Amino acid sequence: MSRPSPDHRPSTTPSGRPRPSFPGSGLAKGLAVTLRTMTKKTVTEQYPDTLPELPPRSRGVIGLFEENCTVCMLCARECPDWCIYIDSHKETVPAAAPGGRERSRNVLDRFAIDFSLCMYCGICIEVCPFDALFWSPEFEYAETDIRDLTHERDKLREWMWTVPAPPALDPGAEEPKEIAAARKSAEKLAAARAEAGEADA
Ligand code: SF4
Ligand code: SF4
């Protein structure tokens, strides 16, 4: 069996004749590759001196919008890594009107995500029926102690401030129900305040 030549070409031509080689041809080829590479635009990013330009919807870390969370436990049940920890207790809410029924509601005691286990699949965000979890593109939260990668509710709330605003609606698109409801409540509140102001004057 013939050994391959240093330039990785077969040492013989397809017809079986020895391939002619010139002294120093390997060196010339090597230099040509070096020159070609030197003149190409570099793709190396000098992180952390230069921060990468990430798409706004990058999966960096998960933020919790606690006010929307009803402690339904769906995210914790669906998480394939079981890295969402939720504790809660029940509270009785008195009846809104005399003769009405008391209600019970879940109150959140603990909400934590262990990012040392999380595989950033996004299932928890997808399944949350109340829009309480969001992706933030922030990714600089490396720790020297693995236990610090479990982010408790306060930390998860802080990440909410880094969640980018949703993209603008298409022209002529219908206003989303939640925004319409929030706008109506704000208008009602403003009208009630204005009325109260007039009554005081
Ligand atoms: S992104 Fe996936 S692995 Fe991470 S907490 Fe959510 S469901 Fe679990
Ligand atoms: S699925 Fe949403 S509402 Fe339900 S516990 Fe998880 S974050 Fe809270």
Give a brief outline of the structure.
With 201 residues, this protein is an alpha+beta fold. The chain is 28% helix and 16% strand. It has a domain at 61-92 and 103-162: Alpha-Beta Plaits (2-Layer Sandwich).
Give the topology.
Blueprint: H1 25-39, E1 61-64, H2 74-78, E2 84-93, E3 103-114, H3 123-127, E4 133-136, E5 150-151, H4 153-160, H5 177-200
Antiparallel strand pairs: 1-4, 2-3, 3-5
The structure holds iron/sulfur cluster (2 copies).
One iron/sulfur cluster is lined by residues 69-75, 86, 128, 130, 132-133.
Structural class of the helices, strands and pairings?
Answer: alpha+beta
For the sheet with most strands, the description reads: 3 strands, antiparallel
CATH topology of the domain at 61-92 and 103-162: Alpha-Beta Plaits
User: What would CATH call the architecture of the domain at 61-92 and 103-162?
Assistant: 2-Layer Sandwich
Global shape? elongated
User: Percentage of helical residues?
Assistant: 25-40%
Report how far the terminal alpha carbons are from each other. 105 Å
Low-confidence stretches: 1-7
Bound molecules: iron/sulfur cluster
Mean pLDDT across the residues is: 88
The gyration radius over C-alpha positions equals 31 Å
Strand order of the largest sheet: 2-3-5
By DSSP, the count of extended strands is 5
Q: With helices defined by DSSP (H or I, 4 residues minimum), what is the helix count?
A: 5
* SSE arrangement, N to C: HEHEEHEEHH
CATH class of the domain at 61-92 and 103-162: Alpha Beta
Strand content range: 15-25%
